[in-house]
């Protein structure tokens, strides 16, 4: 953004579903802490993951230790920093990066965050993460209902009337 680095933190589960994402102008202990705290806010200690796969950046270890100390993360959680275990998360943001490049980049952080939220929400929808809202399990019907949901969400029906 304006020639400065910004970071998109992302969390996915083992099925590849996006759990949460966080946009930060820094990649440090505080940003990693904020991201992990944000991811864990919906889970009580019993339902938190037993293993966290991260890259080898030291900020994650510090954030995990801090969350354990505060009692926000289960004490027995294991952090794994094995190169190939996080391939899912490493390859997952590629379509988002393509969209950001296609937009010509961002100049204002607030607009960047809003646009990335839209991109991520649409990706989650296309991955089928919201299909539990739909009424049918038939493939043809799911696609139609997903389209109808998107039309309502973005008020597209008004455009076509």
Automatic annotation (TrEMBL):
Entry superkingdom: Bacteria
InterPro entries tied to this protein: DDE_dom, IS_Transposase, Transpos_IS6
Signal sequence extent: none
NCBIfam families the UniProt entry points to: transpos_IS6
Record's protein name: Transposase
One GO molecular-function entry: DNA binding
DDE domain boundaries: 2-129
GO term, biological process aspect, one: transposition
Entry keyword Thylakoid: no
Taxonomic lineage: Bacteria, Pseudomonadati, Pseudomonadota, Gammaproteobacteria, Vibrionales
Alphabetical keyword list: DNA recombination, DNA-binding, Transposition
Pfam families reported in the protein's UniProt record: DDE_Tnp_IS240 (PF13610)
